[in-house]
Amino acid sequence: MGDHDDLRKFITDLAVVHGRVVLSSGIEADWYVDLRRVTLHNQAAPLVGRVMLDLTADWDFDAVGGLTLGADPVAASMLHAAAPTDRPLDAFVVRKAGKAHGLQRRIEGPDVAGRRVLAVEDTSTTGSSVLAAVEALREAGAEVIGVAVIVDRGAGDAVRAAGLPYRAAFTLADLGLVA
To answer: Where on this chain does orotate bind (predicted)?
Structure first.
């Protein structure tokens, strides 16, 4: 099996939780994909980085990140997966709101102004979180070249409607789930 298949197995074995839940979008579902069980797992996290780099290999960007908390381990995995290659890649964290102390930055990490960046998320249903990150990145002077997620729960249309390319490593059908 390759990285993509191995990651799918980790997701289906560890992250898919069955039972009634209310998603951050307010939508009720009979199952939840808790990707932090995968993105923060010692064996799965390296796969996340490699799969996401492979998914976006033809896109030109030099920094990756998104709205904290879902995007943070995805961006860190990509940063670490890129390190042994000839592709320099920085990561950043977009806060939900600016800090009222210190440097009062909304985006933490290397400066994104004037840089081509990729917005990521672990999973997205409506696209609201990743689009909030995109807005903050643009306000900071970054050029957002696209959005990539590990699992798409339906956000693709909203992201594309906002004028951004969108890719997902897995769809719900890939995981044997029904929307």
So the answer is: 125, 153
